[in-house]
Write a structure and sequence with these properties.
The chain is mainly alpha-helical. The chain has one domain. It has 5 helices and no strands. The longest helix is centred in the middle third of the chain and has 24 residues. The radius of gyration is 16 Å and the shape is globular. It starts with 17 loop residues before the first helix and ends with a helix.
């Protein structure tokens, strides 16, 4: 019953003021424990790479975390702006594209 009054923090929407938005968005992503992935990036292994079960599990965990971080970024950035960013494969690429553009 204690959780019924819990308020989910709002995703900061990009309003054209990059410095302010990036500070809020970084804090938001840190609170969700996704910032380190946005900061360092996520690299898909080579198609012919042979991975151990532990490596496969770690890769799937990172891939899921990156998808969640991308989801937050997609919700924060207007479609017309997203269309101008050429690379949207990883959360790091989206973040860097926004940083470069604005």
């Amino acid at each position: 019953m204690a959780n019924e009054h819990f308020v989910q923090p709002a995703i900061p929407r990009f309003d054209g003021h990059y410095d302010h938005w990036s500070m809020l968005m970084e804090n938001f992503l840190r609170s969700k424990e996704y910032w380190s992935l946005v900061e360092t990036g996520f690299v898909e292994p080579e198609k012919d790479a042979v991975l151990t079960e532990a490596q496969k599990t770690k890769h799937e965990e990172l891939k899921l975390k990156d998808l969640k971080a991308k989801n937050y970024l997609f919700q924060a950035i207007d479609r017309t702006i997203l269309e101008t960013i050429l690379t949207k494969d990883t959360s790091k690429q989206i973040w860097n594209a926004m940083k470069q553009k604005y």
